[in-house]
Amino acid sequence: MVKRGKNINLYLIDGDVNGRIKCTLANWTGVIYKIPQTKVERISNREELKQSGIYFLFGSRDDNEKDSVYIGQASIRSNGEGLLYRINEHKNDTTKDYWTEAVAVTTSNNSFGPTEISYLEHRMVNIAKESNRYEVKNGNMPNIGNVTEEKQSELEDFLDNAKIVMGALGYKVFEKIMNDEERDVLEPSFVYEVKGVRAMGRRTSEGFVLLKGSRLSPSISEVGGDKVRIQREKYTDDIDMNNYVINDILFKSPSGAAKFVSGNSVNGNISWRTSDGRTLGEIIKFI
User: Fold this and answer.
1) Do 201 and 189 form a contact (C-beta atoms < 8 A)?
2) When you count CB atoms within 10 A of the terminal residue's CB, does the N or C end of the chain come out lower?
3) For the DUF4357 domain, which residue ranges apply (predicted)?
């Protein structure tokens, strides 16, 4: 089925792409706000942020860490405050000092009750963990609550649209590193065999994916190996004790993936080859 286009409206509240942003989607009741931590106080006049909803606290990574996210829910309190009040509480929470931006998800018609936000929080945490792009900071899986099948269908539609808008904002927290369409594409898979180990990879629209089941060289070069050590530390949870990759890992370039595998500085366009011996560079040349 051919996917239809979407019309997303981004309102730059501060006239700045790095400032506060309000996002809506045509024919959707959802409203999403992106709020830098330094500007949380400046958005207190937004009525939608006094409502119930789901919020995300995003943290940028250091070299040896994944990007991180905490996903929570906020209900309207007796003082008439909701999402923004809860986000503000986290500014003083020393256990969540990693976040630099918040994203708040609510509705234009204030239609979220406890059942809706419990279901959405549960689903969003679960999908974020499965996608494996971020380190999800939630300690426990939220309770899914009790929803009818009609309400579940309605909330899944809401979730689909929220994924689109958040992805357009640059938060691919719900997107798999390689989607089904990319796995089925006719472009060949590539193999890199080095030091007695074998790794597999695929090109995607975002870069180059080292596929689960690949094995990494246990040795790392003394020259230039520090970056490889840092990267492998970052992906500790994605590599087992025998140096097998247990989750797909996205790299910006084929050379980055090859270096991660071999522990040496190598040219990915030469190292990665198809089953019939053609190099990645040769494939790119004739595409």
Assistant:
1) yes
2) N
3) 244-280
